[in-house]
Q: What sequence folds into this?
């Protein structure tokens, strides 16, 4: 078993850190709101630290799952950041959905300090984190990844090295682009079925056995029909992710007309008060 630190105990990080502890890893946690870290320790054991640097001191692996690029820099860099406390050869594994640029930046800095950095964004949402069923897409040095993969297995059902630094984040962008189009299509299909006078549940029961089937259809159609949107990834977070995708596309020349359109639809949902609704709330915009 390894000695690890976990930085960021949000809806994803909290259960992920719990799985590491349950697997027998020695763990120190850090959270910006200290009370959350104290609560985690009361539930799971281990220890909490007042700064990322203290959490990372002497650890074999430091895991992070925070909000965005700036949050990631805040826990990794500076005199109280994790890099300042990590021992030579230690590996920083970042589960934040962030830009490929920040992954490359932190990979370079880690290498300069004799550390390793693996960008490892996840897919599967809160349920995936709680059930240890996340998909993890990684970028970085192959040797560092090989060491980290058995530890990541505590909360992952699939984990794959996609390439060098930043490749994990780029793969997560593809994931979010595919989700955006599928959810919009499902929302429009359910909206159309209602306007056509069809029983929407019967429609889903039939088409879910064919080519239209998707994870979103299987897991979100009932709550979409019911107008309930408190079951997954928040609209605010999806807009952050789509902004990362669109920014990367401007640099690499990719054309993303559907993603740009769906991003504006999510802006409409935010204006409706749905900032914390889950991403399936696109249907609410059609049926308001």
A:
């Amino acid at each position: 078993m390894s000695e690890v630190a976990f930085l960021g105990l949000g809806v994803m990080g909290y259960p992920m850190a719990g799985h590491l502890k349950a697997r027998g890893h020695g763990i120190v946690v850090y959270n910006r709101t200290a009370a959350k870290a104290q609560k985690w320790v009361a539930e799971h054991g281990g220890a909490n630290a007042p700064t990322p640097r203290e959490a990372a001191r002497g650890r074999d692996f430091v895991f992070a799952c925070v909000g965005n690029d700036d949050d990631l820099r805040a826990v990794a860099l500076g005199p109280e950041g994790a890099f300042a406390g990590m021992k030579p050869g230690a590996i920083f594994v970042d589960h934040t959905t962030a830009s490929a640029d920040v992954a490359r930046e932190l990979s370079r800095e880690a290498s300069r300090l004799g550390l390793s950095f693996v960008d490892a964004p996840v897919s599967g949402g809160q349920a995936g984190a709680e059930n240890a069923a996340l998909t993890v897409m990684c970028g970085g040095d192959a040797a560092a990844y090989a060491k980290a993969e058995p530890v990541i297995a505590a909360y992952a059902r699939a984990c794959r090295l996609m390439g060098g630094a930043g490749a994990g984040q780029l793969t997560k962008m593809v994931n979010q682009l595919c989700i955006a189009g599928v959810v919009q299509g499902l929302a429009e299909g359910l909206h159309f079925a209602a306007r056509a006078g069809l029983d929407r549940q019967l429609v889903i029961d039939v088409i879910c056995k064919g080519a239209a089937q998707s994870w979103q259809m299987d897991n979100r159609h009932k709550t979409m029909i019911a107008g309930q949107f408190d079951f997954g990834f928040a609209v605010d977070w999806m807009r952050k992710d789509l902004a990362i995708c669109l920014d990367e596309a401007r640099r690499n020349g990719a054309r993303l007309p559907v993603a740009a359109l769906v991003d504006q639809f999510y802006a409409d949902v935010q204006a409706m008060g749905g900032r914390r609704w889950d991403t399936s709330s696109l249907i609410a915009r059609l049926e308001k």
In short: The mean pLDDT is 97.
